[in-house]
Automatic annotation (TrEMBL):
Stored SUPFAM superfamilies: Family A G protein-coupled receptor-like
GO cellular component: plasma membrane
Molecular function GO terms recorded: trace-amine receptor activity
Main subcellular localisation: membrane
Keywords: Cell membrane, G-protein coupled receptor, Membrane, Receptor, Transducer, Transmembrane, Transmembrane helix
Superkingdom as given in the UniProt entry: Eukaryota
Species of origin: Cyprinodon variegatus
Calcium is among the record's keywords: no
Protein name as annotated: Trace amine-associated receptor 13c-like
Amino acid sequence: MDLEVELCFPQLINFSCRRILRPHSTSMLIYFSLSSLSWLTVTLNLLVIISIAHFKQLHTPTNILLLSLAVSDFFVGFLIIFQILLIDGCWYLGDLMCIIYYIIDYIITSASVENMVLISVDCYVAVCNPFQYPTTITQKRVCVCVSLCWMFSTVCVFIVFKGNLEQPGRFNSCSGECVAVFDQVAGLIDILFFCIGPVTVIIILYVRVFVVAVSQARAMRSHVIAISLQSTVKVNLKKSELKSARTLGVVACTFLICICPYFFLSLTSEGTELNVLSFAFFLFYLNSCLNPIIYIIFYPWFRKSIKLIFTLQILKPGSSEFNLV
């Protein structure tokens, strides 16, 4: 086979990395899948961002968390473009751009993980302490927590990538490679704060939410006939909270299903087949596209807002005051 076809940089015969040679049909399938995923992820999450940001009725603590998650998912859609560029295994954008890509990717994905933790806490308080929720989970507190979440991810990224920032490309074994290496301290921070820690917290909180939700559902069914008007309001409130908890639970479960294989393989990737790693990576990015689809299925207000956006009703004066719930 022609050596120029095998190398990323044919002019650097002794230093160039080798391409990943696949059948043309396989490469086109990967290109089409990633391109479609990127377009859907960007478009759907942009609809979530516009909906929550524009309509004042949607400015609730829970929706602010969903807005923050949609922002991170929106940028994940753009990051997929870089994976399209890496279909043949060659990085052509230089060492500095490689590190910038890793930094942006780390901030966005770690912020997404932290957002899921905040969403789990919000759901836990809403179901387990419903009458304290309005005073405990306020819009101001949620905004502060979301800001701290993004700030924490930004600070951590410079600690984790400190060695890579000192000399971009120092860990590349050949030209056309884009790798980043963590030291022990950076790896420990990454595992504790963005892998094992968040996943453990999410699982514990949702197990507690599930137990409480089941007990509340049974209590409502057994007392629904003999309740007063005041109790009816409380029951309806609990039903609304349980419905919201169910939706957020689906989001959290989808997150864990998509993210855990990637985290597991990132810790034990030595000797793992490339196809397995590629699938885990694809599943990791797929989660950002699935979240808006879950909102479409479970949230009537999101379906209404999409209709208003596509019919350009949001351009009318006073459209931010429309009733969606």
